[in-house]
Amino acid sequence: MRLSSLCRIPALASGGPLFLTIQFVRIDEQSIPLLLGHVYNNSWNLSKTPPRADRLPDSAFWGSEENKGEQMVLLEFSMYPLGQGESVSRYVARSLEIVEDSGLDYRCHAMGTVVEGPYDEVMDVVRRCFERMSEDCNRVECVIKMDFRRGQSGRLAGKVASVEEKLGRAVRK
Known about the structure:
Shape: globular
Mean pLDDT: 75
Number of helices: 4
Helix content: 25-40%
CATH architecture of the largest domain: 2-Layer Sandwich
């Protein structure tokens, strides 16, 4: 099984515009679309549990019980309000307080934040950031990129260290 990219699909609904966020999972040469969340009338609905749980047997995504391991992810996200002026750093700062309070390992950089931890905890952080931002912002944009690797932690620093080892030098941080 392998994960492929996310896509955002516009659709029409009786009450207004609807945007679906879909992730495609490939299992045994079959591509299965999974609904990650949807935006309907400016309201974001994000699953609190792995969205594939209702579509696939647990073992199809997370593996058999004997090699299941912890469901760890690296998730990079960039969330910002639209229509709030040129500088949105005060909104980003509020999100970073939520990330910091979660206790999860993270790195903030110029274009987003990378968070590492168990799937449910990381997705809950993103959900709470969105809920806080949408309290006083009518339009919020969020870009999410996620890397799942069963049973692996410490990758936030480990992936950079691996590249530095191959380069034979430190990279700018």
